[in-house]
Amino acid sequence: MCATCGCGKVDEPAGARITVPHDHDHHHDHPHDHSHGHPNDHDHGHPRTETVTLEQRILAKNDRLAEENRAWLTERGIAALNIMSSPGSGKTTLLERTVRELQETVPVSVIEGDQETLLDADRIRATGCPVVQVNTGSGCHLDAEMMRGALDALSPANDSIVLVENVGNLVCPALFDLGEQGKVVLISVTEGADKPLKYPHIFAVADMVVINKTDLLPYVDFDLGECERNARSVNPAVRVLDLSATGGQGLDRWYEWIAAQRAGMITRR
Ligand SMILES: Nc1nc2c(ncn2[C@@H]2O[C@H](COP(=O)(O)OP(=O)(O)OP(=O)(O)O)[C@@H](O)[C@H]2O)c(=O)[nH]1
Ligand SMILES: [Zn+2]
Ligand SMILES: [Zn+2]
After folding, report:
1. What is the SS3 assignment for 111?
2. Is the CB of residue 228 below 6 angstroms from any atom belonging to ligand 1?
3. pTM of the prediction?
């Protein structure tokens, strides 16, 4: 996992950059001094026991921070939903549409995770929705420390919804609890119905699997029923929804699920 892919050095979370985009963001000129100079000395040749110990320390620390986030969110009745997928499945497109359609009636804000750029945060900001961008540099997932930093920068209202777009990756985000109320795995019909079997860990931790881009079903060889069965084979209790973020089909059930998550958090407060 992360100790071997290079994203999970114990000190790495401090290297993440959290940006609240402004109207006059001249960020393109800022020096890129984050992580390019890090030596690539992670674990080649180290005994396996050392790698395992490092992984355990990273995950134990993350779990502690995630519990703090969970308590913080629960006290405030805030439903944070962590949306994970491979790059390009449509996370930002779904969030853009969701905030456009919900923000009139429900307080909602967004945390965007990407290795680099403010592009996704800029797309969300164009909807008028409060947003912060977390740039993880070489990291390939959000962790609980980044989540806490982003929540501090965002200051979401009590009883609100925080939609979190994780870094596009079906592997590492599965391991890092953010303290969120719900984990969503998004898969699009162009990716193949076998993905739950090939990346079982992320599907196993999901509360909801969303199958996106159903408007493309006539053009691709993708069996919705097979994908759903594959998801249930690794996570029998998981909810599965199919929708089209661009076409709008199936979005009602997505909004109903979000509303139920929010209601659950408000009740707990
Ligand atoms: N046909 C179709 N295209 C979609 C749909 N949802 C997203 N797309 C397209 O898929 C591409 C990627 O969408 P994004 O929303 O940027 O994907 P993402 O998951 O946020 O990507 P990363 O942030 O890079 O991981 C864009 O060209 C979208 O227009 C959909 O429901 N149908
Ligand atoms: Zn990783
Ligand atoms: Zn995105």
Report:
1. strand
2. no
3. 0.88
